[in-house]
Design brief:
The protein is of the alpha+beta class. The chain is built from eleven helices and ten strands.
Length: 325
Protein backbone atom coordinates (compact mmCIF):
# COMPACT_ATOMS: atom_id res chain seq x y z
CA UNK A 1 0.00 0.00 0.00
CA UNK A 2 2.77 2.41 0.92
CA UNK A 3 4.54 1.60 -2.34
CA UNK A 4 1.40 2.43 -4.32
CA UNK A 5 1.03 5.76 -2.52
CA UNK A 6 4.69 6.58 -3.13
CA UNK A 7 4.35 5.84 -6.85
CA UNK A 8 1.23 8.02 -7.01
CA UNK A 9 3.08 10.91 -5.38
CA UNK A 10 5.98 10.61 -7.81
CA UNK A 11 3.63 10.56 -10.80
CA UNK A 12 1.75 13.58 -9.44
CA UNK A 13 4.93 15.64 -9.28
CA UNK A 14 5.73 14.97 -12.93
CA UNK A 15 3.76 17.55 -14.83
CA UNK A 16 3.11 16.79 -18.47
CA UNK A 17 3.13 20.14 -20.22
CA UNK A 18 -0.39 20.86 -21.56
CA UNK A 19 -0.73 20.28 -25.29
CA UNK A 20 2.45 18.23 -25.53
CA UNK A 21 2.92 14.49 -25.62
CA UNK A 22 5.73 12.14 -24.77
CA UNK A 23 7.76 14.41 -22.50
CA UNK A 24 7.31 15.59 -18.95
CA UNK A 25 8.86 18.39 -16.96
CA UNK A 26 8.89 18.27 -13.18
CA UNK A 27 7.32 21.62 -12.42
CA UNK A 28 7.72 21.28 -8.67
CA UNK A 29 11.43 20.63 -9.11
CA UNK A 30 11.79 23.75 -11.23
CA UNK A 31 10.42 25.71 -8.30
CA UNK A 32 12.65 23.81 -5.87
CA UNK A 33 15.74 24.67 -7.90
CA UNK A 34 14.95 28.37 -8.14
CA UNK A 35 14.16 28.63 -4.44
CA UNK A 36 17.45 26.91 -3.61
CA UNK A 37 19.29 29.58 -5.61
CA UNK A 38 17.94 32.33 -3.36
CA UNK A 39 20.57 34.20 -1.33
CA UNK A 40 18.80 35.74 1.70
CA UNK A 41 21.54 38.30 2.35
CA UNK A 42 21.03 39.77 -1.11
CA UNK A 43 17.35 39.01 -1.54
CA UNK A 44 18.19 37.70 -5.01
CA UNK A 45 19.08 34.41 -6.74
CA UNK A 46 22.62 33.37 -7.64
CA UNK A 47 23.35 32.35 -11.22
CA UNK A 48 24.52 28.72 -10.93
CA UNK A 49 25.17 25.89 -8.48
CA UNK A 50 28.75 24.63 -8.89
CA UNK A 51 30.38 26.33 -11.89
CA UNK A 52 32.76 29.05 -10.75
CA UNK A 53 32.46 32.05 -10.75
CA UNK A 54 28.78 31.82 -11.72
CA UNK A 55 27.99 30.09 -8.43
CA UNK A 56 29.06 33.20 -6.52
CA UNK A 57 27.60 35.69 -9.00
CA UNK A 58 24.18 37.28 -8.77
CA UNK A 59 22.87 38.87 -11.96
CA UNK A 60 20.22 41.54 -11.57
CA UNK A 61 19.42 41.15 -15.27
CA UNK A 62 18.82 38.84 -16.91
CA UNK A 63 18.54 36.28 -14.11
CA UNK A 64 16.56 37.91 -11.34
CA UNK A 65 14.23 39.94 -13.53
CA UNK A 66 13.14 36.68 -15.15
CA UNK A 67 13.34 34.57 -11.98
CA UNK A 68 11.03 36.89 -10.03
CA UNK A 69 8.28 36.32 -12.60
CA UNK A 70 9.05 32.62 -12.91
CA UNK A 71 8.73 32.24 -9.14
CA UNK A 72 5.40 34.06 -9.28
CA UNK A 73 4.18 31.67 -11.99
CA UNK A 74 5.24 28.78 -9.75
CA UNK A 75 3.39 30.32 -6.77
CA UNK A 76 6.53 30.82 -4.70
CA UNK A 77 6.49 33.31 -1.83
CA UNK A 78 10.02 34.35 -2.81
CA UNK A 79 8.69 36.14 -5.89
CA UNK A 80 7.56 39.21 -3.96
CA UNK A 81 10.85 39.37 -2.05
CA UNK A 82 12.93 39.37 -5.24
CA UNK A 83 10.64 41.92 -6.90
CA UNK A 84 10.89 44.21 -3.88
CA UNK A 85 14.70 44.20 -4.06
CA UNK A 86 14.67 44.75 -7.83
CA UNK A 87 12.28 47.69 -7.55
CA UNK A 88 13.87 49.34 -4.52
CA UNK A 89 17.53 48.94 -5.42
CA UNK A 90 17.73 48.54 -9.19
CA UNK A 91 14.75 50.43 -10.60
CA UNK A 92 13.14 47.17 -11.64
CA UNK A 93 16.31 45.64 -13.07
CA UNK A 94 15.29 46.16 -16.71
CA UNK A 95 17.98 46.17 -19.39
CA UNK A 96 16.15 46.77 -22.66
CA UNK A 97 16.49 43.24 -24.00
CA UNK A 98 14.89 40.43 -22.01
CA UNK A 99 12.17 42.90 -20.97
CA UNK A 100 10.18 41.79 -24.00
CA UNK A 101 9.68 38.34 -22.44
CA UNK A 102 7.61 40.12 -19.80
CA UNK A 103 5.60 42.18 -22.26
CA UNK A 104 7.68 45.37 -22.15
CA UNK A 105 8.73 47.22 -25.28
CA UNK A 106 12.43 47.13 -26.23
CA UNK A 107 14.49 49.32 -28.59
CA UNK A 108 14.42 48.55 -32.32
CA UNK A 109 18.20 48.03 -32.24
CA UNK A 110 20.23 45.51 -30.27
CA UNK A 111 23.30 46.63 -28.37
CA UNK A 112 26.34 44.90 -26.96
CA UNK A 113 25.73 43.77 -23.36
CA UNK A 114 28.19 44.73 -20.64
CA UNK A 115 28.38 43.41 -17.09
CA UNK A 116 28.62 46.11 -14.45
CA UNK A 117 29.48 45.15 -10.87
CA UNK A 118 27.02 46.98 -8.63
CA UNK A 119 27.69 45.40 -5.25
CA UNK A 120 28.95 42.56 -3.09
CA UNK A 121 27.32 40.77 -0.19
CA UNK A 122 28.45 37.83 1.90
CA UNK A 123 30.97 36.68 -0.73
CA UNK A 124 28.57 37.07 -3.67
CA UNK A 125 29.23 39.55 -6.47
CA UNK A 126 26.17 41.39 -7.74
CA UNK A 127 26.31 42.14 -11.46
CA UNK A 128 23.92 44.14 -13.63
CA UNK A 129 23.95 43.33 -17.35
CA UNK A 130 23.32 46.57 -19.21
CA UNK A 131 23.33 47.54 -22.87
CA UNK A 132 26.18 49.63 -24.27
CA UNK A 133 24.18 51.83 -26.63
CA UNK A 134 27.36 52.99 -28.37
CA UNK A 135 27.95 49.49 -29.78
CA UNK A 136 25.17 48.27 -32.08
CA UNK A 137 24.88 44.57 -32.95
CA UNK A 138 24.33 44.88 -36.69
CA UNK A 139 24.18 41.12 -37.34
CA UNK A 140 21.56 40.47 -34.67
CA UNK A 141 19.57 38.34 -37.15
CA UNK A 142 22.33 35.72 -36.97
CA UNK A 143 21.51 34.94 -33.33
CA UNK A 144 18.47 32.83 -32.47
CA UNK A 145 17.66 34.60 -29.21
CA UNK A 146 17.75 38.07 -30.74
CA UNK A 147 15.49 36.90 -33.58
CA UNK A 148 12.95 35.77 -30.98
CA UNK A 149 13.15 39.06 -29.07
CA UNK A 150 12.68 40.98 -32.32
CA UNK A 151 9.70 38.84 -33.33
CA UNK A 152 8.03 39.29 -29.93
CA UNK A 153 8.55 43.04 -30.07
CA UNK A 154 6.92 43.14 -33.50
CA UNK A 155 3.96 41.20 -32.10
CA UNK A 156 3.74 43.63 -29.22
CA UNK A 157 3.44 46.43 -31.77
CA UNK A 158 0.78 44.54 -33.69
CA UNK A 159 2.77 43.36 -36.70
CA UNK A 160 2.20 39.65 -37.06
CA UNK A 161 3.69 39.67 -40.58
CA UNK A 162 7.05 40.97 -39.35
CA UNK A 163 7.02 38.48 -36.48
CA UNK A 164 6.33 35.64 -38.90
CA UNK A 165 9.24 36.75 -41.09
CA UNK A 166 11.56 36.55 -38.08
CA UNK A 167 10.05 33.17 -37.20
CA UNK A 168 10.88 31.83 -40.68
CA UNK A 169 14.47 33.06 -40.33
CA UNK A 170 14.65 31.28 -36.97
CA UNK A 171 13.45 27.99 -38.45
CA UNK A 172 16.17 28.19 -41.10
CA UNK A 173 18.73 27.94 -38.28
CA UNK A 174 17.26 24.63 -37.13
CA UNK A 175 19.53 21.71 -38.10
CA UNK A 176 17.49 18.91 -36.57
CA UNK A 177 19.09 19.19 -33.14
CA UNK A 178 19.11 22.88 -32.27
CA UNK A 179 19.46 26.39 -33.57
CA UNK A 180 22.80 26.60 -35.32
CA UNK A 181 23.35 30.33 -35.02
CA UNK A 182 26.57 32.32 -34.71
CA UNK A 183 27.03 31.25 -31.10
CA UNK A 184 27.04 27.56 -32.04
CA UNK A 185 29.41 28.20 -34.93
CA UNK A 186 31.82 30.04 -32.64
CA UNK A 187 31.60 27.85 -29.52
CA UNK A 188 30.56 24.45 -30.82
CA UNK A 189 27.72 23.93 -28.30
CA UNK A 190 23.98 24.45 -28.44
CA UNK A 191 22.07 26.45 -25.82
CA UNK A 192 18.97 25.00 -24.18
CA UNK A 193 17.32 28.35 -23.47
CA UNK A 194 16.97 28.97 -27.20
CA UNK A 195 14.74 25.92 -27.39
CA UNK A 196 12.58 27.48 -24.68
CA UNK A 197 12.53 30.76 -26.59
CA UNK A 198 11.30 28.97 -29.71
CA UNK A 199 8.41 27.46 -27.74
CA UNK A 200 7.68 30.91 -26.28
CA UNK A 201 7.49 32.50 -29.75
CA UNK A 202 5.50 29.55 -31.11
CA UNK A 203 2.86 30.07 -28.41
CA UNK A 204 2.81 33.84 -28.98
CA UNK A 205 2.23 33.39 -32.72
CA UNK A 206 -0.42 30.79 -31.99
CA UNK A 207 -2.21 33.33 -29.79
CA UNK A 208 -1.92 35.81 -32.67
CA UNK A 209 -3.84 33.32 -34.87
CA UNK A 210 -0.81 32.71 -37.09
CA UNK A 211 -1.12 29.75 -39.42
CA UNK A 212 2.55 29.57 -40.47
CA UNK A 213 3.57 27.80 -37.27
CA UNK A 214 1.63 24.63 -38.17
CA UNK A 215 4.42 23.31 -40.39
CA UNK A 216 6.99 23.64 -37.59
CA UNK A 217 5.39 21.68 -34.77
CA UNK A 218 8.18 19.12 -35.10
CA UNK A 219 10.73 21.75 -34.02
CA UNK A 220 8.52 22.69 -31.09
CA UNK A 221 8.30 19.06 -29.95
CA UNK A 222 12.04 18.43 -30.37
CA UNK A 223 12.75 21.53 -28.31
CA UNK A 224 10.53 20.19 -25.54
CA UNK A 225 12.35 16.86 -25.67
CA UNK A 226 15.71 18.61 -25.28
CA UNK A 227 14.44 20.68 -22.33
CA UNK A 228 13.13 17.52 -20.70
CA UNK A 229 16.53 15.87 -21.06
CA UNK A 230 18.26 18.96 -19.68
CA UNK A 231 16.38 18.95 -16.38
CA UNK A 232 18.41 17.58 -13.51
CA UNK A 233 16.42 14.87 -11.68
CA UNK A 234 17.90 15.72 -8.29
CA UNK A 235 18.24 19.51 -8.22
CA UNK A 236 15.46 20.27 -10.70
CA UNK A 237 17.28 22.97 -12.64
CA UNK A 238 17.87 23.10 -16.39
CA UNK A 239 21.40 22.61 -17.73
CA UNK A 240 22.47 25.30 -20.14
CA UNK A 241 24.31 23.52 -22.97
CA UNK A 242 24.41 20.38 -25.10
CA UNK A 243 26.23 18.76 -27.99
CA UNK A 244 25.26 16.26 -30.64
CA UNK A 245 27.25 13.02 -30.55
CA UNK A 246 26.55 10.27 -33.09
CA UNK A 247 23.20 11.83 -33.86
CA UNK A 248 22.12 12.03 -30.22
CA UNK A 249 21.66 15.03 -27.95
CA UNK A 250 24.12 14.93 -25.04
CA UNK A 251 23.51 17.36 -22.18
CA UNK A 252 26.79 18.85 -20.95
CA UNK A 253 27.44 18.56 -17.22
CA UNK A 254 30.49 19.56 -15.19
CA UNK A 255 33.66 21.22 -16.49
CA UNK A 256 32.00 24.63 -16.38
CA UNK A 257 28.61 23.39 -17.58
CA UNK A 258 25.89 23.79 -14.99
CA UNK A 259 22.22 24.36 -14.31
CA UNK A 260 21.46 28.04 -14.06
CA UNK A 261 18.80 30.49 -12.97
CA UNK A 262 18.37 32.26 -16.31
CA UNK A 263 17.77 29.14 -18.40
CA UNK A 264 15.44 27.60 -15.82
CA UNK A 265 13.44 30.83 -15.55
CA UNK A 266 13.01 31.12 -19.32
CA UNK A 267 11.77 27.52 -19.43
CA UNK A 268 9.17 28.31 -16.76
CA UNK A 269 7.99 31.43 -18.57
CA UNK A 270 7.80 29.63 -21.92
CA UNK A 271 5.95 26.57 -20.67
CA UNK A 272 3.76 27.77 -17.82
CA UNK A 273 3.21 31.54 -17.98
CA UNK A 274 0.61 33.46 -20.00
CA UNK A 275 3.13 36.06 -21.20
CA UNK A 276 3.36 34.51 -24.71
CA UNK A 277 -0.43 34.59 -25.09
CA UNK A 278 -0.66 38.19 -23.84
CA UNK A 279 1.92 39.35 -26.40
CA UNK A 280 0.34 37.34 -29.21
CA UNK A 281 -3.14 38.62 -28.48
CA UNK A 282 -1.86 42.18 -28.86
CA UNK A 283 -1.12 41.45 -32.51
CA UNK A 284 -4.45 39.71 -33.02
CA UNK A 285 -6.44 42.59 -31.52
CA UNK A 286 -4.47 45.13 -33.55
CA UNK A 287 -5.12 43.15 -36.73
CA UNK A 288 -8.83 42.96 -35.89
CA UNK A 289 -8.97 46.71 -35.31
CA UNK A 290 -7.17 47.26 -38.60
CA UNK A 291 -9.71 45.07 -40.41
CA UNK A 292 -12.59 46.94 -38.77
CA UNK A 293 -11.04 50.27 -39.70
CA UNK A 294 -10.47 49.05 -43.26
CA UNK A 295 -14.07 47.87 -43.52
CA UNK A 296 -15.42 51.14 -42.14
CA UNK A 297 -13.13 53.15 -44.41
CA UNK A 298 -14.22 51.11 -47.46
CA UNK A 299 -17.88 51.48 -46.50
CA UNK A 300 -17.58 55.25 -46.17
CA UNK A 301 -15.76 55.44 -49.49
CA UNK A 302 -18.47 53.39 -51.20
CA UNK A 303 -21.21 55.55 -49.71
CA UNK A 304 -19.35 58.62 -50.87
CA UNK A 305 -19.10 57.29 -54.42
CA UNK A 306 -22.80 56.37 -54.43
CA UNK A 307 -23.73 59.84 -53.21
CA UNK A 308 -21.56 61.42 -55.88
CA UNK A 309 -23.13 59.20 -58.56
CA UNK A 310 -26.60 60.15 -57.40
CA UNK A 311 -25.66 63.82 -57.49
CA UNK A 312 -24.32 63.53 -61.04
CA UNK A 313 -27.46 61.72 -62.19
CA UNK A 314 -29.61 64.39 -60.55
CA UNK A 315 -27.71 67.17 -62.33
CA UNK A 316 -28.07 65.40 -65.70
CA UNK A 317 -31.79 64.91 -65.09
CA UNK A 318 -32.31 68.55 -64.16
CA UNK A 319 -30.44 69.73 -67.25
CA UNK A 320 -32.53 67.55 -69.54
CA UNK A 321 -35.71 68.80 -67.85
CA UNK A 322 -34.59 72.41 -68.32
CA UNK A 323 -33.97 71.91 -72.08
CA UNK A 324 -37.47 70.47 -72.58
CA UNK A 325 -39.02 73.60 -71.17
Amino acid sequence: MRLIVLIAIIIATLVVVPGYSGYSIDKDMLRYFLEEQFVPEAGLLRAATTAYPENITIYVANDNVLAARALAVLNSSLASKVLTVLNNKYDGGWNGKIDILLGRDIPDKFYKPENVVVGEVDGYIIVYEKMNTSVIINNWYEYADLLVYHALDRLLWGSRAEAEKAFFNLTRMWDGYGFRDNFVKEHGVYQVYKCALFIYLYKALEAASSEVIRDYRYIHDKCLEIISKAQDPVCGGIYTSYKVVDGKVVILKGAGHDMNTETTSIVVLALYSNYPEVIGERARSTESNTMIYSFEHSTLLLLGLLSLSCLVLLIIYLRKSHKRH
